[in-house]
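Lab notebook, bench 4. We co-purified these components, and the gel suggests they stay together. Before we commit to crystallization screens, I want a quick structural picture of the whole thing.
Request: model the full complex, all chains together.
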Amino acid sequence: MDLPPGTDAHLESSAPPLADFAALAVRAAQLLRTPQALVNLSPAEATCVVEHMRLVHFAKGVTLLREGDRTRVDFMLLLLDGDVSVETSAGGASDAVSIAVVGPGSVIGEMALLDGAPRSTSCIALSPGRAAGLSSKELERLIESHPQVAAKLLVGLASRIADRLRGLGEQLQMYAKLSLDLQAEVARLRASARR
Amino acid sequence: MDLPPGTDAHLESSAPPLADFAALAVRAAQLLRTPQALVNLSPAEATCVVEHMRLVHFAKGVTLLREGDRTRVDFMLLLLDGDVSVETSAGGASDAVSIAVVGPGSVIGEMALLDGAPRSTSCIALSPGRAAGLSSKELERLIESHPQVAAKLLVGLASRIADRLRGLGEQLQMYAKLSLDLQAEVARLRASARR
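Here is the predicted assembly.
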């Protein structure tokens, strides 16, 4: 499935199964494993997940996920190659701000896939690349057919979301401290202006 | 299992099974369901999870989770009653700051349970209360014995973590905007002081 520049990504059931591309399928299975999680996918289990994924080719500039999108929320992507900018319209600014650049091994879009809420950030391809897509239907099928594999995948996905939450928490602490320092500076400058 | 004031919580395997307390077990099963998630626990499946949980009584002032703790990370708690303050030592401040108060139906500690990382916040009981505890061992047992139920529970837990991530993202945007405004105010005051 090819996504040309200027398009928004979606995951069609006509996209080719990743399993048809042996080398990429092996790479995806390796990237899916989350060694630090409570339970981890074995290589065979990761291969089982990959059998439910589809290959997505994207051009530079493609919007893989769009912040606020409520319709195309039924898939996640495991990046196989290429760089992707994660962007947000911070604090109601009109221009989106890049908050991270992610690459191979990163999973994007799993939050909306799991909870059905609108996409929380935009993800824009900075280069051409490839991703392994998992649709909500395929995830439901995996839970039906291989529930133990699905459970381990879900521990891994939850673990990745938790990791981002920890990172964001640290950023928030930094901003909270910066705001306090700036407030103190404003108070100091105002006091000396009054003298 | 009773936790008196001034103690840190842990979850002993000697704590009484929640299933021994019929009314509380029914309540826990109801609170476990996450209607907005991709797949939701049925009442029977929620009851199956509850059969792996233990009852924890806590006094006011008990530290249910301690920020940075690397040892007692092998359990999560579903609050059944009582109020709990979620606290963080924001930006290296010596005093912890309360960032939220959570009550019945809230799950705390699931992140460290799933990814094994140190606790990201402290959770302090503001009142006496009760919680349903799930240990990592029991979760692993559930994945073994009822993988489909475990998978659905994990979708629900991931969904709750995602929800917190979205909330924190909004807070971060607010702080980012506040910092920009304050920086502009500092620049303005400095310029007028120079005149």
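The beta strands of chain B are 2-3, 54-58, 63-65, 75-81, 84-88, 97-102, 107-108, 122-125, 129-135. Worth comparing against the SEC data before the next meeting. Residues 2-194 of chain B form a domain with the Jelly Rolls fold (CATH 2.60.120.10).
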